[in-house]
């Protein structure tokens, strides 16, 4: 899991980041600060993997603050202004989020950070995710999941003996699952490769359940049997 800190002089912006991060199983916002200088001791004393950093702040810009930190963590800039995008990437920022940003855009940025984290720390590759269902976060091992089905505004994670429903889009669910273990076969279905028992021209069987292959996903299915 990524341990994150958010710095923004607007409390409402911090509330947004905390709310969006709460829906992502691999990000934990451990601390928030409206003053960059107050955040500095925390960053010096704690191991932080990711920094959500506003650029336009009254006492010091996010860019200048980042330059002043020795051995800074990964950073995602959050700002209402686009003119600093090039400079932010010159500082090796993971991403640059323009306010207001959506859950999907926030998830994309966090996923990029997580991928970088796993590349640097391969021993920490998880074997599970936490799926938000109602007010709870349910821990589910990847090898428990047979397939995932889209159902209106929700995703259903079908496991042996249980079904977990979460308010996610298909794209968000696809991002949460490792591509090495799961493949999308239809606009409404993602399957666990290890649970597939049979494939024919139009159908994938997950154990005894037959699921359709969408025309746009035929190539992905073919890769499983090559």
Structure description:
The protein is of the alpha/beta class. Helix 5 (103-120) runs parallel beside helix 6. The strands form four sheets. A five-stranded parallel sheet has the order 2-1-3-4-5. Strands 10-9-8-12-11 form a five-stranded antiparallel sheet. It has helices spanning 11-21, 36-45, 62-68, 85-90, 103-120, 170-176, 218-224; strands at 2-7, 27-33, 50-54, 74-79, 95-98, 128-133, 136-141, 145-151, 154-159, 162-166, 182-186, 189-192, 196-199, 203-206, 209-212. The radius of gyration is 20 Å and the shape is elongated.
Largest sheet: number of strands, sense, barrel closure: 5 strands, parallel
* Whole-number mean pLDDT: 90
Count of beta strands: 15
Radius of gyration: 20 Å
In whole angstroms, the N-to-C terminal distance is 33 Å
Strand arrangement, major sheet: 2-1-3-4-5
Molecular shape: elongated
The low-confidence runs, each spanning 5 or more residues with pLDDT under 50, are none
Helix percentage? 25-40%
How much beta, percentage-wise?
25-35%
Order of SSEs, N→C?
EHEHEHEHEHEEEEEHEEEEEH
Number of helices: 7
SS class: alpha/beta
């Amino acid at each position: 899991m990524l341990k994150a800190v958010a710095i923004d002089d607007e409390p409402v912006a911090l509330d947004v980041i905390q709310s969006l991060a709460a829906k992502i199983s691999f990000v934990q916002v451990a601390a928030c600060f409206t003053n960059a200088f107050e955040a500095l001791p925390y960053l010096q004393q704690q191991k932080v993997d990711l920094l959500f950093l506003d650029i336009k702040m009254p006492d010091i810009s996010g860019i200048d603050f980042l330059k002043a930190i020795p051995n800074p963590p990964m950073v995602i800039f959050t700002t209402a202004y686009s003119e600093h995008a090039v400079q932010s990437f010159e500082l090796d920022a993971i991403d640059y989020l323009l306010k207001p940003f959506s859950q999907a855009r926030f998830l994309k940025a966090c996923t990029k950070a997580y991928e970088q984290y796993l590349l640097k720390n391969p021993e920490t590759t998880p074997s599970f995710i936490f799926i938000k269902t109602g007010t709870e976060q349910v821990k589910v091992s990847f090898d428990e999941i047979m397939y995932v089905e889209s159902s209106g505004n929700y995703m259903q994670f079908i496991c042996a003996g249980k079904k977990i429903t979460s308010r996610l889009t298909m794209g968000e669910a696809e991002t949460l699952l490792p591509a090495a273990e799961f493949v999308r076969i239809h606009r409404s279905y993602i399957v666990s490769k290890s649970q597939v028992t049979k494939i024919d021209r139009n159908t994938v069987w997950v154990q005894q359940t037959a699921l359709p292959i969408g025309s746009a996903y035929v190539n992905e299915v073919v890769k499983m049997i090559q």
